Amino acid sequence: MSDKPVDTPAVEAVSSEPTAEASAPVATEAVSDVVEAPAAAAAAPVEEIKPVEESAAAPAAAAEIPADTAAAAPTAAAEETAVATPTETPIQALYTAAKEHGHPEIWGVTLADPATDVPSQIVFQKYLNANDGSLDKAKDQLLKTLAWRAKTKPLELLARAYNRDKFSGLGYVTSYTAEDGTYDPAAPETREVFTWNVYGSTKSIDQTFGDLQEFLNWRVALMELALQELSLATATKAITADYDPYKIYQVHDYKSISFLRQSPHVKAASTETIKVFAQNYPELLKEKFFVNVPAIMGFVYAFMKLLVAAKTMKKFHPMSNGVGLAAEFGGSSIKGLGQRLPSEYGGKAGELKTVGKETQIEAEAPAKTEETTVESSA
Predict the structure, then answer these.
(1) How many CA atoms lie within 13 A of 40 on its CB side?
(2) Of 44, 138, 210, 254, whose CA is between 20 and 30 Å from 98?
(3) Which residue, 34, 39, 225, 193, is CA-closest to 119?
(4) 50 within domain boundaries
(5) How many distinct structural domains can be found in the chain?
(6) Is residue 332 part of a domain?
(7) How large is the average pLDDT for residues 139-157?
(8) Is residue 122 in some structural domain?
């Protein structure tokens, strides 16, 4: 990694939380945290999973009608409110909305009947969880995600090769299961996925962030690569409002980064990435670690508390020394997880650039050789 200070933003406020938690753009690093996974075979019925509304807290706004009462007590505005019919659960209502929209996939999961397809149940439940059980809000966010994926085609972005000078070495994904490499889908806690953002390795701010759409395409591809490792399409254990192990750790390394100024290119990338990730990747962040942060980060972190929801702030962990990261995972269901992290972060594995996966990067151009002109004599 270069020791040259890089003018990049301070922190990523939100990358995969509901839009309401990241609506205010701040001087933060949104440049935070896709081959299509096969659709899972039909799993055993998950009828025992109760709708999230039966256990989630009641919506704060009076206009939000709980799904379990809206059908029984219709109002004059009932036609404009997304509610489950008397014969369908809120999750089934979301599946109906998805079918009506027509786009068939989210996060590598081919959407199917959630009563028998666990991966689909997980996707729909996450949208309910992200909106505190409000079916109306969950449906709105789901439909916006479907429209965005239909237009953006994230799985195609994963298959694309990105410019080496702009993006090589800036983002990685690692995943961990048992030390012997086995994984039991019935125990999803025994798989952990990390995304690593190393913006201190940026060679040129103008090159990396100057083309906003190109940067967003790369950043989405990195997230989809992490989702591929999470492999929701092969999941066999459903989630609830209180139980969801299918989430991703994010690590942001701020070594060699300058916090004294912010490029307009970075600010634009930051703002747009927050919007895209908050809207289209809800309930996928497990915890976020900011490592190798300078003292000024304390001020930024305090400022963020005024703008970001408390439940999201609990997931944020600033650290002055990246080597201490390994010690944070002593309670993991994966034995010795911390020791298996890259060596820069206190683990005993190789360096991140050797153990991590990147999005596809364009092949390095062949070295130029000096041409020799051979003159022929008459």
Answers:
(1) 26
(2) 44
(3) 39
(4) no
(5) 1
(6) yes
(7) 98
(8) no
Angle 284-287-290 from CA coordinates, rounded to 5°: 125
The Cα–Cα gap between 16 and 195 comes to 12
Contacts of 22 (CB under 8 A, 6+ apart): 13, 14, 274, 275, 277, 278, 308
CA 295/CA 254 separation, integer angstroms: 12
pLDDT of residue 297: 65
| pLDDT reading at 46 higher than 60 | no
pLDDT at residue 128 greater than cutoff 90:
yes
3-class SS of residue 249 = strand
Query: What range defines the domain where residue 249 resides?
Result: 6-35+159-355
pLDDT at 164: 96
For residues 131 and 126, give the distance between their C-alpha atoms in angstroms, rounded to a whole number: 9
CATH code, domain carrying 21:
3.40.525.10
- The H-assigned helical ranges of the chain are 67-70, 90-101, 118-130, 135-152, 154-158, 164-167, 205-210, 212-230, 264-280, 297-304, 310-313, 352-355
For residues 232 and 108, is the Cβ–Cβ distance under 8 A? Answer: yes
